[in-house]
Design goal:
Number of strands: 21
Strand order of the largest sheet: 13-14-17-18-12-19-11-20
Bound molecules: zinc ion
Amino acid sequence: MRIAYGGVVHETNAFSPIKTPLGAWEIALGDDIWTDTDGSKTNAGGFLEIARREGWEILPTIMASAGPSAPTDGETFGWIKASLIAQLKRQPVDAMFLSMHGAMLVEGLDDPEGELLGAIRQTIGDKPVVVTLDLHANNTEYKAAMSDAVFGYDTNPHVDIYERAVEAAECLADILNKKVDAVTAYAHSGIMPPTITMLTGTGAMEKLFKRAKRWESVPNMINVSVFGGFPFCDVPHAGLNVIATANKDRGLAQAACADICALARSIKEDFLAELPDVETAVVQARTLLAQDPPLPVLLADVADNPGGGGSGDTTTLLRALIEANVPRTAAALLWDAQTVETAIRTGVGNSADFSVGGKAHSGYGPPIRAHATVKAIADGKIRLTGPLGRGATWDVGPCARIEAGNVQILLSSRRFPCLEADIFRHLGIEPAQQRLIMVKSRGHFRASFEPLCSAIIEVDAPGAANQNLSLYPYKRVKAQPISK
Ligand SMILES: [Zn+2]
């Protein structure tokens, strides 16, 4: 058996100030896609493990990914699609295993992922196509129909990326070994919740996944994936949806999708989120710190999460922390290549006037002008040891830590969400030894940081990924936004 493997991964925020030209994509073709994947707890690592067990020959196609940002342009998408298909045509294959995010948009194109699947279908005919998707996918009927089996993450923070790839590859093995005949069904709930309340360990999503697990225990059900959706996409299909995969029985898959969507509608109020504004959040943090907790209080700058299309350089919350000047405060990760350069030029131990952040979009607050001391410089190549990508290496680019009053500001020259405590350690800060931490991340930081903090406060500050959906000028969304 020869199996094609590939991935096209982009979570698109239609309101993001960060553009997504071809240069924003990291693209590897053919054998180059395997760099740093073997043995890692990633999608590719999970696929390779089962491929080896099954004795599959692999045809690597393309691995294209870009950090969450605005819709990519049609020419770039056309190039990516053509490259995938050209790679796929190099040799005949028995199946395709494809990793996608599920909430990708292209300028003028609502369902580029469906289009990719359609092109793959055209190339390999009715050979099996198995797809893995992020929990925040906005899916379509067409995307499901073009796939033989679909596997979304069951966790948020997404700590089961590797496990779902293993499950998907095992299902592909069952299809190829004629043990199952997989069929999919899709349904949309009609609601569009904010991402802040999509954590799977609590609230509405916990209930929906419990129901999905119950359906998965029914004979002939292969997988039931609940997708919270990604609300920063202005397309008719944005919002909470379900794809179920069953053995032969499409009616069974349809029943599971309909049931979970009905449950989601009935508990939609559980998705409502109200977050404290910056001023209130700082007061809350001070009150908690007055009780002298053994671990730091963490403030999450959720609206500027680069992992959701935020620029990662908004300044409102950071400015308030500098004004609060609490001893042992550390904030990460500010995207500001210019300030990193200034810090490198200034040199460790020296002080200078800095203009921090506020450069990507004038609407989210001006740069912070501060006299600060350079405390650390690093190359930004971070080997992850935490729960989200253990074994993988992130390259956040040259980075620096500067100290303004009592606040350590961690800066990177590439835009990355602060998901892992390793980012702080890379610049010489042990997060657990701080009193106040700020991270630019919406929820994924929790997997790494929850054990290191005494409390977490999610803050309503300006940014492209604000959880108050009424702030966004939606024109084409059909679902009901769950918002105050
Ligand atoms: Zn996600």
